[in-house]
Amino acid sequence: MRIKMFRISATLTALLIGMLLVFLLSAVGSKTRGPLSDLLSFASGSVETVEANLILASREQRRSNKLKWFQVYRNDPALLKNPKTLLLGAFDNNTKDGFESIVGLEDSIRTTLPLIHIYTAWGSKPEEEFPALQVKSIIELGSTPVITWEPWLTDFDPDKYPQLRKLEERDKGGLADIAHGKYDFYITKWAEAAKKANSPLFLRVGHEMNDPYRYPWGPQNNTAKDFIAAWKHIREIFKKQNANNVIWVWSPHPAYGYFDAYYPGDSLVDYIGVSALNYGTVASWSKWWTFKEIFGNYYKDFVHFKKPIMITEFGSLSVGGNRSKWFTDALDSLPQKYPAVKSIVFFHYSDDKTTTQQVINWYFKNDAPVTRAITKEINRWGK
Amino acid sequence: MKSSNKNIWKFKEAPFAKSLDRFVLLVLVAGGIFSVLLFADWWFKEDNIDNIWLYIILSATLWYGIVRLVLIWINYLRVDKPLPIEAPQGLSVAIFTTSSPGEPLSMFEKTLAACRNIEYPHTTYLLDDTRDPAFKEVAERNGAVWLELVGIPGAKAGKINAALKLTKEDFILVLDPDHIPFPNFLDHTLGFFNDPQVGFVQVSQAYYNQYRSFTAAGAAEQTYTFYGPTQMSLYGRGCSVAIGANCTFRRKALESIGGHGIGLAEDLITSIRIHAAGWTSIYNPVIVSRGLVPEDFGSFCKQQLKWSRGVFEVTFAEIPRLFSKLSFWQKLSYFSIGTYYFVGATQFFFTILPFIFFFTGVLPARMSFVDFVVHGSFVAIFAIFIYLYVQRWMCDPSTERGIHWRGMVLKFACWPVFLLGFSLSVIDKDIPYIPTAKKAVTGYFTPFARPLVIQSLLFIITVFCVFTYRRFFMPESMLLLSAEKVWGMVAFAFIAFVMAVGGVLAALEAQNLTEEEPWSKIDLNNIKTS
Prior knowledge:
Number of helices of chain A: 15
Oligomer: heterodimer
Helix content of chain A: 40-55%
Radius of gyration of chain B: 25 Å
Number of strands of chain B: 12
Number of strands of chain A: 8
Distance between the termini of chain A: 93 Å
Shape of chain A: globular
Helix content of chain B: 40-55%
Strand order of the largest sheet of chain B: 4-3-2-5-9-7-10
Structural class of chain A: alpha/beta
Order of helices and strands of chain A: HHHHHEHEHEHHEHEEHHEHHEH
Distance between the termini of chain B: 26 Å
Strand content of chain A: 5-15%
Largest sheet of chain A: 8 strands, parallel, barrel
Radius of gyration of chain A: 24 Å
Strand order of the largest sheet of chain A: 1-2-3-4-5-6-7-8
Strand content of chain B: 5-15%
Shape of chain B: globular
């Protein structure tokens, strides 16, 4: 009996110590992803740097050569905050393997875009960390990144972050939680990584915060005060991390009118971001809106902030009207008509499922009348 | 490595397992299993799947390896050795050793002299089919009985069975002719037969020519753990297996299964049949003889082909037939031994995986390389600790301990051989019986290394193409985003490339091996038995 007891207790002790060892190891590992993963990330980062230096640097025809005029802007956030010319850019959803689709779009409209726009969500998945590789890639291409950073708070794994509220309750008051520091662990790391990008970048966080139907960070879950508090808190963290390369884009939805209440203040905003998408007759709630109807009519409301304006999502579907005419009307003398607009970012999305039940296609690079119209209008502006 | 270690002609034995050692081992195994569970939890996620078919194959090959690892760990928990029992007086004992055409006469001179030196009274028989009168002369000069057994099918096993009919001894030690037995050999086996249930007693196989070449060193390294902690654990689980040479059988046990098993893996067949007939077995981790390992890569591959084909034969033909007669651990152990050489197929898959990616862009899994390494590292850490920890139970830790990298290179480089053995088994095709070379076969490049040459060339050409494409043709916007994946795969293929090159170098080494008769230098009077 004695022997039996001894054996059982020895076995249990051994099992316990074994598990403890694993827990200890993983505790070391989970702290800021662990020394091993840092080392490996550093190694893979070095691979990219070596390739950039060895292969990219020795190429003759580089995209950045076509953007030589933009060089002065690229390294100067102050100049980007007040550019002397209108900066064009684009978002394209087919950029998983590289930005070739952007290059294709550029070929179709015969220009090279100084801005490239990407979307990234908050959360605990690896792809929800700061998109360092894409940013580096955009900078290597000679452009400046525009990042729309969406606070999808339910993307944080409850197993990894038990201190956060339960999934189903997380969105209610989510912005207040951000303001109270519940997500500092994530924001701080992101800010740190953003600083390491070592180049200016536009950051559009919590866009369309005044739209109660679209995103969980909207008024259905939060107050305007909460939004401003969260914005201030995020900015403080970036300031603490010395991430001064970030240019802040505050981007309400124009159609919901009451966006003044969401404005965090002159000292905390660099750009006003406005989206101008014409859905045509694709959905029951939509009709063929002209650019003037979806942007021009609100222009004066944005101008009074006395900030440069970025049209962050610019595009039109072809259902229900003449798309090339839409672009011609929109772009015709745009710098003269809307002098506060300092940037236009094309919305080039081949299978958008985010707004309507169906898949809608914003692509126009193969629509020759449209690309001709765009090329013609932007060339008439002069540099 | 190039000089013969004088210390090897000395009796050695593995230590007993102390309670504290077992406890530490249990801690490590618990940690290891826990890490495997965590790794599994991370691996089997839908998010990780890219190409579903490749993912399934990759998962199967990876987890085939991990499950085997865990089985070995659990096996180790029973590591044990029998208490020595003095051999009783008056047993009748035979030693069988066989000679075949082409085997060097001088080797038999040494082996038979060593057999005569064995202190326990016995009769040595030379089972000869050389038709060479010189062999008879050698046998008789060394006090052995010469049995001419010509034209008997079943190679070595066939001759043993014929000899069983011609002799009467109760206990038979089957000794490979390249093994030089120490004078105290039988003192370490016969005592265990006091237990009437014991069917055979196996002792360690050790070698004396491992310093001769890279291949020899690697081949020897591959056996150290097996003849130490692995067999000791199998003994603890009641299923120590017979490994052809150096095995002492009880005649009744052999007769109960109709004689020695015949086939390419005749030892394993005999072993499983004896266990199925209800006999028990003993593994005594002592070094009481030393023999030869293949010195050149070609001979090594031949031996491995023979074994892999033979072992699969056991899996397909013996295990299903005898399954119900085996104990749980015997089932598990024989099945695990019987599927060992499947590693050729899994390595083949790991080898072609990067090339599939380079030429089609298809990937099995979406997980990042960094995540894989981070999650897999716990399993690796515990595996390494357990691997090093159980080395205390090697028969001769002072010469056998270490990181057996040569053995690993050889195992890796043998994937074409294992794959061939596996394929031949599946389609039930025979390979001819190939006796293992006793002397280095020199001056030619073995065909077994050709797949490795192709693999190495393919790697070099692929890296060249990948670099050229990336340097001159790939759109710059795609370069950085694909760099980690592509060079990660190149690194993965590079590991296999290094192993293949190791195999090719081992094959080339054969061309510079000097023919030597390693046994000629052995001084039988210098063997120390205490």
